[in-house]
Amino acid sequence: MSGVDWAQTFGMGRHGLYVWPAFGLTLVILGGLLLHGWRARRRLQRDLRQRWLRERRP
């Protein structure tokens, strides 16, 4: 069984300076999109609930 050289895997030679920041930026953007979608969904549910309550009143 051969061992994995983690320093070489994470370093990626000269490409590591490009790959890891791009990977991190991708994770930050995806996290932001998830947070934005979650907040928009909550806002929409709140607005729809308020509208339903207004229309339900006599």
Describe what you observe in this structure.
The protein is mainly alpha-helical. It has two helices and no strands. It comes from Pseudomonas benzopyrenica. It is found in: Cell inner membrane.
Question: Would you list the SSEs in sequence order as H and E?
Answer: HH
Termini, distance in Å? 76 Å
**Major sheet:** none
Strand segment count:
0
Kindly estimate the percentage of residues that lie in beta strands according to DSSP: under 5%
- Give start-end ranges of low-pLDDT stretches: none
Shape annotation: rod-shaped
Q: Level of helix content?
A: over 70%
Helix run count: 2
- Broad structural category: mainly alpha
Function: Required for the export of heme to the periplasm for the biogenesis of c-type cytochromes.
Subcellular location: Cell inner membrane
Membrane topology: Single-pass membrane protein
Family: Belongs to the CcmD/CycX/HelD family.
Tags for this entry?
0% strand, 58 residues, 81% helix, rod-shaped, mainly alpha
Secondary structure layout:
Blueprint: H1 6-11, H2 16-56
The gist of it:
It is a single-pass membrane protein. Helix content is 81%, strand content 0%.
